[in-house]
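Thread: quick sanity check before group meeting

JM: Hey all, I'm pulling together slides for Thursday and realized we never actually wrote out the predicted structure for the chain we discussed last week. Dropping the sequence here so it's in one place. If anyone has concerns about the input, flag it before I start.
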Amino acid sequence: MAKKPESEVPNLPKNWPWILGWVGGLLLLHIMVPLMYYINTSPTARSDERFRWRMFSTVRMRRCSIEAFERKALPQGTVDTETLRLSQIVQEAWIDLMRRGRPQVMMGFMRKRCTLRNRVSVELRQYCRSAEGKPLFVLENVLDCKTNKKKTTYRSLRTSS
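JM (edit): ok, ran it. Output follows.
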């Protein structure tokens, strides 16, 4: 077998293993980030699909509504609970993001409301139904304005059939 002349052998860069490692790492990242959606089973992670493969998802099919409540300290030392009319407070686009369960938007809204005078806590409740109209879950987020601690409660409404 004849040896190829020197001019026909391709010249590979000396750092080609580093280039292949970098490309391989990038490909691995592009697979692992969407895969985390299927590994993490928490309800808040399951509602946020920004970095996920959506081809197998039914999250967009469910219909959710959102309610907001505030607890205010009154001068007599009591606490009054008020239902907020979100359409009069924030734009519809932000309400839609809260209906979808975007945790950053919900937390931002609750923090903003806590900056107002005499606020004790702010609560957002997300009620979701399947595309067929069957109740799925209620997700309650409560932010304590004094301690800035958030408590999330998930209640499944699915019935075995």
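AS: nice. The mean pLDDT is 85. Strands lie at 63-73, 79-84, 119-129, 135-144, 149-156.
JM: adding both to the slides.
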